[in-house]
Specification:
CATH topology of the largest domain: Heat Shock Protein 90
Structural class: alpha+beta
CATH architecture of the largest domain: 2-Layer Sandwich
Shape: elongated
Helix content: 25-40%
Number of helices: 22
CATH class of the largest domain: Alpha Beta
Radius of gyration: 33 Å
Number of domains: 4
Length: 628
């Protein structure tokens, strides 16, 4: 192949402009990214060589070398990993997935430190080399190809790159950075060692650099031809916990998660027994931007006997813990394990169960701690991940009880942080049920007319406003023997909390109000399933509820918003016979209009939408007109 010139994809031009003009205060990240890419190339070779050992050729020891030429102002990152063919060089270094680029550009905040961490997350780490280089040359040969089928890729990071065929005896890749004049700091053994120690110490491959020694005659440090390993070259999770500092744990987390914040909590354990594995698991402090992206794979990194197998091994962690980051290294799984085999393996099931319990244990230690700091940490966790954790109540029957104790809600007594145990401890004497209400927002829940009798009697009601809460209630029916009861379903029954005199008075009022109820049923025929007197209202004239066991109006709205079918069940209208508006109904000549307005207002107060808003406006206008 003769030398060819190609134009960069438009999205790559955007990335190049960004890294050369916006990330100049975080220059050192380029070395982190290029060493990480080199390590990945070695991992890929090791994985492919499981079935094709001949790919190792005559160099079975995988490594990364970093060296520089001060006179030529070049810095080289060399690996003997899988390498690239000419086609792969063009595909990997000249184009990038449009969706990835779009997401990357959309996430930029203007904070250089945070933006720099996005580089690796969206797979554009190679281009970070242009932060310090005015030209990058890549020479590579894919393992298994003959020496004359190597490729040289070269670009100044503007609009074009060049490709040409070269001969290369060794497999693997050299990334050669032609540094700008002002970037001479990276032509220093001490500076490069410091960056590698900071970002890449955990990499299990040896990272080699040439030794420096003191030349007494020249009175300066000189670079020798002897190579030395400058990282620990041991997987951090494989080391004893006593050997790893908190700072090392945090740095490792930032490397695997591309998060600029330290983790909220972490756990490092070696498990022995039916299955042997090591787990290093982290709970992030902040939710990732793609937490609710259904196409985004979740899960932890899987290693087998310290051999990297795959990122995002979903089978090792339940979906409701998809925010957990970390590494699991198994001693029992086969090296050629696939995603399909992971779904069926008994060992994987044991790892999944053990890891789930470990993460829940971390959360319990924060939630149940007497420390104000830990309690604050759990409150922060709940704000970020509470809605995701709720999914586990329906997905993980074995841990449902543990999960129910971790749930937190707002209530009529507190805006946040109420556990089910807190609620039960505050229950009124004689109270049997845990009362809840679902709504689109906290304000809508707080102001629901269905809470009036509970507020009057000082009975606490949990306010559930997450979209997942309706689904949660379909799986969580009781806690410590107390049933969860929606205040918006069925007739209100306060049991022992309502005295006999109140019950008797309510029955008498209902009997006397029967003629009005019959007229209301006739006026609302086709809209209301039933009309009845209620004791749940204090200040409002009416409210709508559904029968016990029917789908709530809130859930029906959520399903329709998601484009799914929902039953068109008619609600029940409950009226407050003590309210002035209801009392005047019987003698008002505009009975039908008042009945319709009463029903429409009850729907609106509950968060519903009117089928005929224009009709509602006309009826209200007719009522207001005489007073005008």
């Amino acid at each position: 192949m003769s030398k060819q010139t190609h134009a960069f994809q438009a999205e790559v031009k955007q990335i190049l402009h960004l890294v050369t003009h916006s990330l100049y205060s975080n220059k050192e990240i380029f070395l982190r990214e290029l060493v990480s890419n080199a390590s990945d190339a070695c991992d890929k070779l090791r994985y492919e060589a499981l079935d094709h050992p001949e790919l190792y050729e005559d160099a079975p020891n995988l490594e990364v070398r970093v060296f520089f030429d001060a006179e030529a102002k070049t810095l080289t990152i060399r690996d003997n990993g899988i390498g690239m063919s000419a086609e792969e060089a063009a595909a990997h270094l000249g184009t990038i997935a449009k969706s990835g680029t779009r997401d990357f550009m959309a996430k930029l905040s203007g904070d250089q430190k945070k933006d720099a961490n996005l580089i690796g997350q969206f797979g554009v780490g190679f281009y970070s080399g242009f932060i310090v280089a005015d030209r990058i040359t890549v020479e590579s040969r894919r393992a298994g190809l003959p020496a004359d089928q190597a490729v040289r890729w070269s670009s100044e990071g503007t609009g074009e790159y060049e490709l040409e065929a070269i001969a290369r005896a060794e497999r693997g890749t050299d990334v050669i950075l032609h540094l700008r004049d002002e970037e001479a700091e990276f032509l220093s053994t001490w500076r490069l060692k410091a960056i590698i120690s900071k970002y890449s110490d955990h990499i299990s491959l040896p990272i080699l650099m040439k030794k420096e020694t003191w030349d007494a005659e020249a009175a300066k440090q000189v670079v020798t031809d002897e190579w030395e390993t400058v990282n620990k070259a041991a997987a951090l999770w494989a080391r004893s916990k006593s050997e790893v500092t908190d700072a090392e744990y945090q740095d490792f987390y930032k490397q695997i998660s591309y998060d600029s914040e330290p983790p909220l909590a972490y756990t490092h354990n070696r498990v022995e027994g039916r299955s042997e594995y090591t787990q290093l698991l982290y709970i992030p402090k902040k939710a990732p931007m793609d937490l609710w992206n259904r196409d985004k794979r979740g899960g932890v990194k899987l290693y087998v006997k310290r051999v990297f197998i795959m990122d995002d091994a979903e089978a090792l962690m339940p979906a409701y813990l998809r925010f957990v980051k970390g590494v699991i290294d198994s001693a029992d799984l086969p090296l050629n394990v696939s995603r399909e085999l992971l779904q069926e393996s008994r060992d994987v099931k044991a790892i999944r169960e053990g890891s789930t319990k470990r993460v829940l244990g971390m959360l319990e230690s924060l939630a149940d701690s007497d420390s104000a700091e830990d309690k604050a940490k759990y409150a922060d966790f709940w704000k970020e991940f509470g809605a995701v954790l709720k999914e586990g109540v329906g997905e993980d029957f074995a841990n449902r009880e543990r999960l129910s104790k971790l749930l937190r809600f707002a209530s009529t007594h507190a805006d946040e942080g109420v556990s089910l145990a807190d609620y039960v401890a505050r229950m009124k004497e004689g109270q049997q049920a845990i009362y809840v209400i679902t709504a689109d927002s906290l304000a809508a829940a707080k102001n629901s007319p269905q809470l009036e009798i509970f507020r009057k009697k000082g009975i606490e009601v949990l306010l559930l406003t997450d979209r997942v809460d309706e689904w949660l209630l379909s799986h969580l029916h009781e806690f410590e023997g107390h049933m969860l009861q929606s205040v918006a379903k069925g007739a209100v029954d306060l049991g022992q909390l309502q005295d006999e005199e109140e019950k008797k008075k309510a029955e008498e009022v209902a009997e006397a109000f029967k003629p009005v109820l019959e007229r209301l049923k006739e006026a609302l025929k086709g809209r209301a399933k039933d009309v009845r007197v209620t004791t749940r209202l204090v200040d409002s004239p009416a409210c709508v509820v559904v029968e016990e066991g029917d789908m709530s109006a809130h859930l029906a709205r959520l399903l329709k918003q998601a484009g799914q079918a929902a039953p068109d069940a008619q609600p029940i209208l409950e009226v407050n016979p003590e309210h002035a508006l209801v009392r005047r109904l019987a003698d008002d000549p505009r009975f039908d209009d008042l009945a319709q307005i009463l029903f429409d207002q009850a729907l609106l107060a509950e968060g519903g939408q009117l089928d005929d808003p224009a009709g509602y406006v006309q009826r209200v206008t007719r009522l207001l007109a005489p007073a005008a």
